[in-house]
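Deliverable D4.2, example record:
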Amino acid sequence: MRSQSEPIETKVEEVDDLETARYRRLPSLWMGIVVLLTAASVGLAVNQVFHLGFFQLILGNVLVNNRYMYLIAGIMLSMLFLVMPAYKGAPKTRVPWYDVCLFLITLGFTLYYVYHAEKILDEAWEYNPPEHGMYVSLFFWALILEGGRRAGGIAVFIIVLIISLYPTYADMMPEVVSGIGQPLLNTAAFHTFSEESLLGIPMKAFTSLVFGFLLFGVALIYTGAGQFFINFAFALLGHVRGGPAKVAIFSSGLFGSMSGGPVTNVLTTGSLTIPAMKSIGVRTKTAAAIEACASTGGVLMPPIMGATAFIMADFLNVRYIDIALAAAIPSLLYYFGLFMQIDAYAAENKLSGLPKEDLISLKEVFKDGWYYIAVFAFLIWMLIFLKRESQAPYYATLLLLVINQFNPRHRLSWQKTKDFIYAVGGLLAELAGLLAAVGLIVGALQVTGMTGTLTNDLVYLAGGNPFALLIMGAITSFILGIGMTVTAAYIFLAIILAPALINTGLNPMSVHMFLLYWGMLSFITPPVALAAFAASSVAKCNPMETGVEAMRIGSIIYFIPFFFVFNPALLGQGTFGEVVIVCLTAAIGIVLVAGGLQGFLLGIGSVRNWIARGFLLIGGMALAMPGGGMLPFSHMQLIVAAIVFAGTAIALTLVTRQKAA
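Output generated by the structure prediction step:
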């Protein structure tokens, strides 16, 4: 490890490489075009969010909302063809002729939609389009599908293609899944002209909320916040029992809330935390699994979270801060579970921390990066107290960039500023391409009337049993999470499955959060387990073994979604007393579960008897499970059961230890 005068760092250049690995290294001309288009898009977003009236001042005309969304969607989609190669072996350092053509054609179509934006609204072109509008829509539909393929992969392309074409064959389907049919050209017009398809919930969330928060997240990374959080974690926890493993949990949680991607998080923070864990004796596969679990949970950690949280706010018609506050308790419980498992593992295996003299001091860390915490506090203040959700990330980004220029270590040079804008453009273009494509799914199901039909059919299949529907939801979310991005999988299920679950009497917030959590689980669960496999490549160990170990270490995340559906108090949806009780019992239950899984209970020591460990697990689960909701048990009954099982386990352990002595 480094000396105190030489702090632990992650190099910003390495973060840049990871962020732009999916993107081209563009020549100067094309880089300049992307930077200009990104800056123009940010300017458009600022004009719309802050109601500056720039277009009214210059052109004497208000920028109507659908014209604004067409501008953003069109610019981002055209940029996607520049920054993301068409296939794996496509050129990475130049733009091939076919991508130049797609770029220009997309911009041309965008101008068409922007020019006709008011007519589209006034004359209801989604139902009564002119002939030229139908043909333009058909070509634009194809461009959206190609953008979705590049951004989300072939699975997204196939699913979106089949479902977006559904209106053309809905009337020929069996009665249980039949719907209102319409011709191909009319379907194309509905997809691009209506406010329920291309301009539906996903794109509305993107242009109103996601845009600003992604800008803030990239700004944090490029101004050195990732380095600050890792240094902070090492200074705070590096010297304690199993220190580097606890650092991985803390730093990956903070960094993950900024990056929004488990794999990117693993490759960024894991390159430092995994070797540090191995250096104190943590098994290689365990080190990789810890990092994978910590990085996956970061996407569920407020205040930034991933793009899915903003789309969820639109589906539920609530403020984003309500989503963030609801996500806070489950994500903290998840990280607490990871922390307790690591502490028990370190105690049982006698793993010490790193020498204090090899670590940077907290004083030095705060001296160098105090303003990151100040900016986070400012963002939260604006979100919670001022309730300016759409404007808050822009103010926070501006404040961060201004303060950062006074720090000589992280000051943005002109080249670094261009790289920052390019990274923003690439990330926004990728997400816009995905959301535009997934929006077609929403439109197809709405125009055919299938949303309500499928909801009723699912309730009928489950016999109105919410438990059966929850199991169906968990399995479907997990499977879709394997083949699609979490955002795409969530949107699909929020349309099809969420209404069915809500119709059985479940809390809407719990249902939507349940689908999000189970979609995320594919990142640490074999056979795919992308985050675990990425961590295994850093640690140089067997990927499948890492995935199995990640399942064991992150096991609490498989139960938490069911817990907050059983009782929404775990999402803060209840009285203050109820929320305190379920949180307290869940925390104590997690300690018992960690003790059972790792064979070491805090305050008792080693628990090596397998019967005792089993009783600890049962007692911990009983205590962690919230009573007073869907389950036919009260808090007191569950507490008594937990005391019986955990007490038996502790007594058995003490008796066994006394006999051995």
